[in-house]
């Protein structure tokens, strides 16, 4: 675990206020709610080459919270904010099998099966995005983590990198829960032993999903063109700024 911890620290992104922000590859990043960013954090993100922010949340999740920092309109005006909700919270099978939200890689395959058009729309948005891209959900763990795994699969990442990416996201939001004012209703803070046990089981499920995945085939089957796939690959291979 020491090697993974060191690598995780190296891939962490430090934009002021950002929670669970990580570099995926090239010009692509992931994180939790963008509303956690401060004015300085938005500027730091811009300085890193980010020009597009893709929000994977549903409309009802996009409400501000009292504890969010006040951010000027100028701070966000230079970014294109693209809304690409990856799920329908009213879908009966989703609520029965995965609800109240996606929180385990064991359910990623079901999620892809339930919402292929919505996931394909995210990749179309990535392909069309100017500059670097941040993909974010609420916690920065599973919806953004699923997109990250699909991107890593497209780039040819190995098992270690894929597992590291998920473990980073899970550790990152767990650390956020350590300091949160009130315990999370569904994801309480976990002490190290409990966290390690959960990481171990979820990493197995994650690799089962990753080994069954062919992102390029999925994208082609769901209306993403060869030109768009090439554009995504170019963003994955571009050097991070």
From TrEMBL:
Record-linked Pfam families: Y_phosphatase3
SUPFAM superfamilies attached to this UniProt entry: (Phosphotyrosine protein) phosphatases II
PROSITE patterns: TYR_PHOSPHATASE_1, TYR_PHOSPHATASE_2
GO molecular function: phosphoprotein phosphatase activity
Domain of life: Bacteria
InterPro entries (alphabetical): Prot-tyrosine_phosphatase-like (IPR029021), Tyr/Ser_Pase_IphP-type (IPR026893), Tyr_Pase_AS (IPR016130), Tyr_Pase_dom (IPR000387)
Domain Tyrosine specific protein phosphatases: 113-150
Full protein name: Tyrosine specific protein phosphatases domain-containing protein
Organism: Arthrobacter bambusae
């Amino acid at each position: 675990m020491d090697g993974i911890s060191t690598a995780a620290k190296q891939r962490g992104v430090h934009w002021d206020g950002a929670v669970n922000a990580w570099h995926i590859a090239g010009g692509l990043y992931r994180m939790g709610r963008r509303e956690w960013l401060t004015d300085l954090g938005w500027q730091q993100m811009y300085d890193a080459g980010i020009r597009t922010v893709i929000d994977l949340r549903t409309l009802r999740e996009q409400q501000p919270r009292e504890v969010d920092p006040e951010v000027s309109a100028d701070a966000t005006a230079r970014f294109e904010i693209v809304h690409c909700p990856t799920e329908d919270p009213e879908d009966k099978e989703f609520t029965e099998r995965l609800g109240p939200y996606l929180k385990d890689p064991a359910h990623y395959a079901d999620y892809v099966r339930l919402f292929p058009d919505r996931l394909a729309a995210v990749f179309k948005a990535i392909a069309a995005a100017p500059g670097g891209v941040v993909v974010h959900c609420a916690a920065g763990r599973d919806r953004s983590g699923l997109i990250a795994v699909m991107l890593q699969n497209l780039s040819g990442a190995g098992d270690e990198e894929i597992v590291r990416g998920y473990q980073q996201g899970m550790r990152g939001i767990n650390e956020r829960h350590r300091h949160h004012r009130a315990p999370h209703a569904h994801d309480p803070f976990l002490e190290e032993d409990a966290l390690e046990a959960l990481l171990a089981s979820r990493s197995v499920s994650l690799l089962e999903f990753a080994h069954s995945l062919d992102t390029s085939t999925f994208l082609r089957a769901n209306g993403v063109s060869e030109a768009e796939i090439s554009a995504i690959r170019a963003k994955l291979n571009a050097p991070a700024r």
